[in-house]
Predict the structure.
Amino acid sequence: MTSLAADKPVPRAARFNVGVALMFAVLALVPFAAAFGPESYVLGLVTRVMVFAIAALAVDFLCGFGGLVTFGHAAFVGLGAYTVAIAGAHGVTDMTVTLPLALIVSAAFAYVTGTICLRTNGVYFIMITLAFGQMAYFIAGSLAPYGGDDGITLPTRSTLFGLAVFGNDRALYYATLGFLVASYLLCRAVVYSRFGRVFRGARENPTRMATIGYDVFRYQRVGYVIAGSLGGLAGFLLANAAEFVSPAYMSWQRSGELIIMVLFGGLGTLYGAIVGAASYLLLEEGLAGLTENWKLIFGPLLVIIVLFARGGLVGLAASVRARFSRD
Amino acid sequence: MTEAVLLIENLRKSFGGLVVTDGVTLEIGPGELHAVIGPNGAGKTTLIHQVSGTLTPDDGRILLNGTDILPLPPYERAKLGLARSFQITSVLPRFSALENVALAVQARSGSSYSFLRPAAAEAALNDEAMAALAEVGLEHRADIVAAHLSHGEKRALELAIALALEPKLLLLDEPMAGTGPEESERIVTVLKKLKGRFAMLLVEHDMNAVFALADRISVLTYGRVLASGEPDAVRNDRAVTEAYLGEELE
Amino acid sequence: MSFTLLLIQTLNGLQFGVLLFLIAAGLTLVFGVMDFINLAHGVQYMLGAYLAVMFYAWTGSFVLALILALLAALAFGLLLEFTVFRQLYDRDHLEQVIATFGIIIFLNQGVKVVWGAAPLNLPIPDGLAGVVTLMPGLTYPVWRLVIIASGLIVALILYFLVSQTRVGMLVRAGATHARIVSALGVDIRRLFMIVFGFGTMLAAFAGVMIAPILSVEPGMGDSVLILAFVVIVIGGIGSMRGAFIAALLIGLVDTLGRSFMIDILRLVMPPSPARTVGPAIASMLIYVLMALVLYFRPAGLFPAKGRS
C-alpha cells in the first residue's frame, strides 16, 4: 500500500501548534482586510477554500492516518450539497434539519459503501471508491426533478430557526471558519484517541492488529464514516456558498483534486490539508487571472512539485527550516 | 484432557499436492512450554499459522481451553487469550515501543471506540505497557520509534506486546531468528522468567535454547509428529536422532 | 426488428470493447510490470487521434497518417518517459497519480492551443466508408467492423508476444515478481521503455481508429481512461487475458445497457419513471459491475499470481 515517508514517526500526542493557530487567526482577519478591496469576491473565494479544506481534512484523515486512499470522496461532498438542495426544493431550508440530514445521508452512504470497499485494499480500494463516486455522480445527473445534469439553484441559503443567518457573506464566512476549526480539532483529537491509535495501527500492519485482537475492518469502517460525514459537512457548506448544486461536484476530477490538495500540503499532518486546499485553489485562481491558458503552467507545476518537493509544502517548509537551523 | 490449554487433534493441511500438516495431534497443559522442532519445511510455521488463524486447516480440531477456535477469525482468537510473536518481526514501525505495547494493553482493557481523549495521556495504559517493557528489558527504549530499534530489541518488543495481552497461550515463532548470541541469551532469560505464567508453544531452531526452556518437545518431519516427550526422552529417541537431531546436537 | 437492433448493439458493444482493450492493454502492462499508475494514458489516446487528423491534412492518406501518428505518438511517449515518468517508477502510487494528472491538465489545454477547442473530424478511408449487409434487413458500417477486426488482430499479436517471446516472458514474470526480474540482471530500464512505448502506441492506435466515427476534441481521453481502469481492475491488474475479457464485458454491458435499460425497466415500472431512471442506471451499470466483481473477487477476475 502507499506509504509516504514511511520512516516518519507518528507523534504520540497532539501539541499546540503555533503555526496552525496563526493560520486560523489570519483566516479570522481576512474579512477585515477584504473590506478594503473587492469584498464579496475575496470572501467568496476564501469561503470556498475553507469548504474544500474541510473535505481535504477528511481525505487526509483517511489517506494519511488510515492508509485508505479514496478516489471518490467528492461523492460525499455532493451528497451533502444535494441534501440541502433537495430539502430546499421541498421548502425545508432550516439548518436544524438540513445539516443533521446532510451528515446522516453522507454517513449512511459511507457505512454502506465502506462495508463493500474495505474488503479490498491497495489499488483495488482506490478503484472501488472511484466506482461508488461515479455511481453517485450518475445518479445525481439523472435527478431530473432537481435539475439533472444542469444542477439546481438553491431557493435560499440555509436558515436557523427561520432567521436568514447566512444572509450576508461575512456570516457565512465565519460560520465556515468555525466549522473548519471544529473539524480540524475533531480530526486531531480522533487521531490521537484510542480509536485513532487503532486506526493508525491498521495502516501500519493489519495482520498484527488482528493477532492483537482488533477487528480491523470495523475500525476502518468507523473511520470511513467519520470522513464521509466530514465530506457531507463540506457539501452542506458548499451548497450554501455557491447557492447552487450540480453533479459536477461529484466528478472524479473533483475527488482527484482533493487528493492533490492533501499531497500539496503534506500527507498525514491535517493542517497540511488546509494549507494544501488554500494553495491549490489560490494558485488556480491566480494563474487563471494571469492567462487564459493557465493550465499549461498549472499542469507542469504539479509534476514539478511531485518531482522536487516530496512531503508537500509542509514538508518543504520543514526541510528549509532544518537547513537554516543547521547553519 | 479438558484441562489442556491447547489441544490440537488430527490437524491436516495441504497446499495442492503438498501435505504440510499430516494428522498432527498435540496437547499443552497449563504453564507448560512445549517446543516444536524439526528441519526446515517440516510444517512448524504452518502449524502456528493454523493455530493463530491466518491459515485454515483442511481437517482436524483446535481447542483453546476447551473452546473450538477453528471457526473464529484471528482477532476473536486473540480475545480468547491467544497471543503470537511473528517469525518475521512485525511490530508497528512508526509507533514508539511504548505505543506498540500500549496498543496491546488497550486491546484487552476497555473499549477502543473512544474518540476524543488522547490515548497517550492515559496513565493506566502507559503504566501497564511500561511494566511489560520492563519485563523484557526495554523500559529505557520506551520512546524510541520501533523502526529505529535493533533487531534483537524488536524481538524483545514482540514479546512485550504478547505479554501485555496477558495471554492464556503464547505462540512463539522462532523468537531467536536472526539474533546474535548475546541477544539470544537475553531472550532465553526473559522466556525463563515468563515460564509457568502461561502456556507457550515454541518453534525454534536454536537447540540450546529449546533444551534449556522446553518442558516437552515434539519433533515434526514432513508435517507429522515423529516423536513427542520430555527433552531427555526426545534427545535419546533413536528415530529422532537418526532423522534429524544427530548432526545438530554435536 | 428488435432482434436486429440487439444484433447491431451487440456489434457496437463489441467494437467499444475492442477499443477499450487497446487502451487497457497498455495500461495493464505498464501497471502490472512497472507498478506505475499512468493517468496520462488517456491523453495518449487523444493525442493519437489529433496527430492522425494533422497528418491526414498534410498527406491526404489515411494509411500514411496512421503510420506517422503512431510514430509521432511513440516519440512523444518516449520523451515523456525519459523526462518525467522515469523518475516516478519508485515513487508512491499517489505521487504518480498527481504527476500524471498534471500531464493530463497540460495536454488537454495543449491540444486546445495547438488545434483549437472545436471538435475535429477524420474522414473514413475511401472504400471503407459504406455499410455492409450482414443479413437481409441488417446493414452495418464497414469501418466499425474494421475496428473490431483490427482490435482482435492486435489481441492475437499481443497474445503471441506475451506468451512466446523473451520480452513477453519477462513481462509476465515482471507482472508477478518484479524484484526477481531485476535481480536476474535484466536491464529493467530498457524493458520498461519497451513496454511503455508499446502501450503508448496501442493507445494512439485506438485513438486513430476511433477518430473517423467520433469527434476529436480536448478531454476525449478522460472518460476513456476511467473506463480503461475499470477494465483492468475487473480483469485483474497485470493480466492481459483479464483485460481482454473485461474489456469486451464492459463494452457489451455498457452499450446494451444504454440501449435497452429503459425497455427492461418498463417491464417492472410505468414508462415515465422508467424513462427517468433508465439512463442513470445504464450509465452506472459498469460501476455496479465493478463493485460486484471486487466484492466477490477483491483482486479481479484473473488475479496475477503473487500480487495481493
